[in-house]
Write a sequence for this structure.
């Protein structure tokens, strides 16, 4: 099978090729992919040979490619892309427009069947009337759109403005002629048409067209919408009735004259197809920037993108990348086109093969792609990204792109930079998950993170523990700080209105006490302060003077009688036993 290393190298080469630069000298036609998932009539409609094979992630991958097949034997970027697409599925970092170009061009390939043949996708919902049969309309694509997969659900996201591509067809059943008897009938088709094709929501009509191929536009949508295409098919038949004024039934002949009447029976049949979609908009967006008193070159920014986002551009060299990656695949039910007449049904490869863009979470948190080295800091460092937690999706087996088991849909992200000028953050550009969705957000100043000073004072120390007072003040002004906590070891306490916290510590082996002032994170706090540290020493636990006097007296009282007794015994024995005094 193709190793991950081979695929990584292949992807880098694809990016480097840009879809136009040959990987080796010479020109070669890309080898065809035999998978039925890939339309045989591509590439076309402005989708180049390099990108086209990557649009069909639902193809059957040949997982037995060797590294040699991605080496010198490839003579062109299209050939390389074809081999890569046949080995694995390639995700994109942003929504691509190739899907829309392909769908718009491929719509024109639809060839309706004529008055007596209905040509429809295999899963089309067919409607029948008395004369009109197998009438339908099918939505080819809603674009731009992205189907987002999360957990066990999928949802289609669209822009407020976009278009719906649709096809429609039908056939007309003409009653049989009756050419015997005194009253005879002859039927023919006078005219038929797909009279109207209307795009509507549950509330109003958005656009209208007519014919077998339609591009219907919508504008200014919001919220969740049911986009419905309604096609009305009209058929007008010519019915000629001939009546004999004197009919001889014995010989089956009219011996009089034929009187002719003509009427035009008319019928209308309506067919519909719908897609549920959620309009994605950038709402409640904003950003706040802070400076740091300790270092004027440091800048912190909190960004609220206001939407599911694929990327946030801070500068030309600094881009935040969201959880999402994108892939394109063919739409189910469009590989086969069915042709129906009154007497037979045939199936052929479909001439219309729409593609759909999908979004999947491939990492648990946003990240910052960087070319930082040991000697250079990355332009941005992510402090925290927060939002709702979700389970990752399960993809169809034919999609060979790994996803995460769970992820955070980051609705806010805090970053800091030690290299970018503060003015770089005046504006950032948020890119959504639907192609074309982007908006520039203004970032406002939110103050300065003030330096702080922590002072630890040992109030009392004894065998049971140590009582420590912590005082936190602003370094510049000396004003007390009343927010945050002081932490010593595993214990912590909140500061009071005077900027003081008192901690009672258990007895510890070391005489050194290390403490930290832990403020609220600057990206979450209203009052902005930096962290601070201090060290205090527990003084030696010497006894007081009164204690020493008492100890001396007690010791004297204990040992004086013993000394007198020993001396007396030695005196009585004349120093013979203990030798404390000289013999006479």
């Amino acid at each position: 099978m193709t190793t991950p290393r081979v695929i990584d190298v292949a992807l880098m080469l694809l990016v480097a090729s840009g879809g136009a630069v040959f990987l080796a000298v010479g020109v070669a036609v890309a080898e065809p992919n035999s998978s039925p998932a890939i339309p045989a009539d591509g590439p076309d409609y402005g989708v180049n040979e390099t990108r086209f094979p990557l649009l069909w992630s639902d193809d059957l991958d040949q997982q037995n490619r060797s590294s040699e097949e991605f080496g010198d034997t490839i003579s062109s970027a299209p050939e390389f892309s074809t081999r890569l697409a046949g080995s694995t599925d390639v995700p994109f970092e942003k929504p691509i427009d190739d899907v829309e170009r392909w769908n718009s061009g491929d719509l024109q390939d639809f060839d309706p069947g004529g008055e007596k043949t209905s040509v429809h996708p295999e899963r089309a919902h067919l409607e029948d009337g008395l004369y009109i049969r197998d009438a339908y309309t099918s939505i080819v694509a809603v674009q731009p759109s992205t189907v987002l997969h999360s957990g066990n659900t999928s949802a289609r996201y669209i822009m407020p403005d976009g278009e719906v591509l649709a096809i429609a067809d039908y056939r007309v059943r003409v009653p049989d002629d009756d050419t015997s008897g005194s009253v005879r009938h002859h039927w023919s088709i006078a005219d038929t048409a797909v009279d109207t094709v209307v795009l509507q929501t549950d509330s109003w009509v958005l656009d209208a067209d007519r014919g077998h191929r339609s591009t219907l536009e919508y504008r200014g949508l919001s919220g969740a919408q049911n986009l419905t295409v309604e096609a009305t098919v009209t058929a007008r038949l010519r019915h000629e009735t001939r009546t004999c004024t004197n009919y001889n039934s014995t010989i089956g002949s009219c011996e009089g004259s034929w009187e002719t009447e003509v009427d035009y029976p008319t019928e209308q049949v309506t067919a519909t197809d719908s897609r549920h979609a959620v309009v994605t908009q950038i709402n409640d967006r904003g950003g706040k920037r802070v400076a740091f008193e300790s270092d004027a070159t440091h800048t912190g920014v909190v960004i609220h993108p206001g939407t599911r986002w694929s990327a946030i551009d801070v500068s030309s060299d600094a881009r935040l990348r969201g959880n999402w990656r994108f892939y394109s695949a063919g739409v189910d039910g469009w590989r086969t086109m069915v042709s129906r007449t009154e007497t037979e049904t045939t199936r052929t490869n479909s001439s219309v093969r729409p593609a759909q863009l999908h979004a999947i979470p491939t990492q648990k948190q946003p990240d910052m792609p960087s070319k930082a080295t040991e000697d250079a800091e990355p332009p941005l460092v992510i402090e925290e990204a927060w939002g709702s937690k979700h389970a990752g999706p399960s993809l169809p087996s034919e999609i060979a792109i790994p996803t995460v088991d769970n992820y955070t849909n980051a609705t806010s992200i805090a970053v800091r930079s030690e290299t970018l000028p503060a003015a770089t953050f005046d504006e950032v550009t948020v890119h959504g998950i639907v192609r074309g969705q982007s908006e520039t957000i203004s970032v406002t100043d939110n103050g300065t993170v003030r330096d702080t000073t922590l002072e630890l004072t040992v109030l009392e120390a004894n065998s049971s523990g140590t009582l420590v007072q912590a005082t936190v003040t602003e370094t510049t002004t000396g004003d007390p700080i009343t927010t945050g906590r002081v932490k010593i070891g595993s214990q912590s306490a909140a500061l009071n209105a005077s900027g003081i916290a008192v901690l009672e510590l258990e007895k510890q082996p070391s005489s050194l006490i290390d403490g930290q002032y832990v403020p609220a994170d600057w990206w979450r706090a209203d009052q902005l302060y930096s962290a601070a540290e201090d060290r205090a020493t527990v003084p030696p636990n010497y006894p007081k003077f009164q204690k020493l006097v008492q100890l001396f007296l007690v010791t004297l009282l204990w040992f004086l009688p013993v000394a007198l007794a020993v001396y007396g015994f030695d005196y009585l024995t004349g120093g013979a036993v203990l030798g404390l005094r000289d013999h006479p």
Observations:
- The CA atoms of residues 34 and 525 lie 59 Å apart.
- Residues 545-572 form the longest helix (28 residues).
- Helices lie at 4-17, 77-85, 98-107, 545-572.
